[in-house]
Amino acid sequence: MCRHIAYVGPPVALREVLISPEYALYRQSWEPRRQQHGTVNADGFGVGWYADGDPLPARYRRPGPIWGDQSVVDLARVVRSGAVLAAVRDATESGSDGEAAAAPFASGPWLFSHNGAVRGWPSSLAPLTTALSPAELLSLDARTDSAFVWALVLHRLRDGDGLGQALTDTVLEVAEAAPEARLNLLLTDGESVTATAWGDTLWYLAEPGRAAVVASEPYDDDPRWHEVPDRTLLTATRADVLLTPLKEPSA
């Protein structure tokens, strides 16, 4: 379920990442090519980006399908950025969270997205609530599995963990509590992109020394796209891409 994408590199118009490519995230909202779970990503979308000289990202999110919002097309035409994270949300059961449930989630310099689902939510993750303070639990962005996973990641980031460590420890912890969880996570601080492949597709396109794109699926048929093996941590910067295997949680 869901599709997401992140870019770091020279500043480009958002449309060059999100709309113009033949199979861009915009089209993936109604016609994904490699989505293994779900069919239509129409239950909200969001775009986050960084402006020069400001470490805090801006966001544009809406509760409906991206194809029904002409404002995002205009926005993507004129806004330029060297770091972008965007997502379209799979159609889900009805709820009252609306825009608040749409990625990217944000805090401080970070943007986050979750492509996947946690089987048995919320009961399956109830034991993990002890890792969060009452204030953190009351501050959840939405009553969804993705918002709770983000809270776990954010807790670790605020404790000083690096992006890769925060994602790795969260994925292993959640996978142990809910073994059938799909946990493709995407996180950026505006300088690098960190992601996990855990139960769904993840690809990257790298131009070493210049730019990197990390996405649920390729936005075109460029042969330089590489699929990330399942159970892998990816770290991408403008310089290079590093893949690290993730170990299964112990039985």
TrEMBL record:
Catalyzed chemical reaction(s): gamma-L-glutamyl-hercynylcysteine S-oxide + H2O = S-(hercyn-2-yl)-L-cysteine S-oxide + L-glutamate
Main enzyme class: hydrolase
E.C. designation(s): 3.5.1.118
Pathway membership: Amino-acid biosynthesis; ergothioneine biosynthesis
The entry's keywords: Glutamine amidotransferase, Hydrolase
Signal peptide start-end: none
Domain Glutamine amidotransferase type-2: 2-251
InterPro entries named among the record's database cross-references: EgtC, EgtC-like, EgtC_Actinobacteria, Gamma-glu_amide_hydrolase, GATase_2_dom, Ntn_hydrolases_N
Pfam families cross-referenced by the UniProt entry: GATase_4
Gene3D superfamilies: Glutamine Phosphoribosylpyrophosphate, subunit 1, domain 1
Lineage: superkingdom: Bacteria
Cross-referenced HAMAP family: EgtC (MF_02036)
Function: Catalyzes the hydrolysis of the gamma-glutamyl amide bond of hercynyl-gamma-L-glutamyl-L-cysteine sulfoxide to produce hercynylcysteine sulfoxide, a step in the biosynthesis pathway of ergothioneine.
Protein name in the entry: Gamma-glutamyl-hercynylcysteine sulfoxide hydrolase
Organism: Streptomyces niveus (Streptomyces spheroides)
Taxonomy of the source species: Bacteria, Bacillati, Actinomycetota, Actinomycetes, Kitasatosporales
